[in-house]
Structure formats: structure tokens, C-alpha cells
Amino acid sequence: MNFAPYIAMLAVVLAGGATALQAPTNARLAQAVASPVNAAFISFAVGTAALGIVAAILHTRPDMVATRGLPAYAWFGGLYGAIFVVAAAWAVPRLGVAMTITLMVAGQLLLSLVLDHFGALGVPQNPISLTRVAGVALVIAGVLLVRRG
């Protein structure tokens, strides 16, 4: 039996849990350093240091020659992450953790449908279907339920 897909799913669920922890952690840091931007900067500095340590332990080196052929958008992942962290640090004190994360997941799913449909940014093309739209609609309904609760 191939366990790789199950391991990947578990890893993503755990990463999602880390996102739920990250939002209030950075919100608290933002209060202390007087800015969600300052909190994001500190958060990314700590994350960069941690990744540097892991890369050193694993003896991984980036193939800088291979990076020459990358499209421009391949360099913006950190920017998207910075926007995510700043938005979460700003929103958690105003909306709460559950509402913030639910809205972020809804936004991720909406854009994911579009990216999949068009095969944008090099992902495999997966057309929008009624079932997929219904799944995203249920998440958006969840946003409304979380808001009312």
C-alpha cells in the first residue's frame, strides 16, 4: 500500500494547525512591537533562521543555475506569505482566530478554484465543477456560521 498520499495529507493538516497557532502568536507579538508589519518581520526572521539551520543539517544547497530559468512569479512566494502573516496578525484581535482563519481558507479556496481551472502558475489544469464550487460555498457558509456564533 502506498502511504505517501496519507503522509502528505497528515503533513498538510498539521501545517494548517500551525497556521491556526501562528495567527494568535503573531497577533500577540504585533501588540508587543506595536505593528503587524514589525511582528511579521520578526516572525520571518525567526523562520528564516530555523530554515537555515534545517538546510545546514540536511546539507541542502540551492541550485542557483536552475533559478535562472524560473518565471518571475516563482520569486513571490515569500511576499504572499508576508501578506498572510501581516493580515492575520492585524485581523485576529479584531475578528478572533476562528473567523480570521475561516476567511483565509475561503480566500485560498476561491483563488485555488481559479488557478486550477486555468492551470495558472504551472499547476495541472482541473476545471471548475459544480461539486468543487459547492465545496467552496460550504466553506463560505461556514464563515457565516462562525461569524454568527
From TrEMBL:
Stretches that traverse the bilayer: 39-58, 70-91, 97-115, 127-146
Pfam families registered for this protein in UniProt: DMT_YdcZ
Signal peptide: 1-20
InterPro entries xref list: YdcZ
GO CC terms of this entry: plasma membrane
The keyword Coiled coil belongs to this UniProt entry's keyword annotation: no
Domain of life: Bacteria
Keyword entries, A-Z: Membrane, Signal, Transmembrane, Transmembrane helix
PANTHER family recorded: INNER MEMBRANE PROTEIN YDCZ
Protein name: EamA-like transporter family protein
Species whose genome carries this gene: Brevundimonas subvibrioides (strain ATCC 15264 / DSM 4735 / LMG 14903 / NBRC 16000 / CB 81) (Caulobacter subvibrioides)
Lineage: Bacteria, Pseudomonadati, Pseudomonadota, Alphaproteobacteria, Caulobacterales
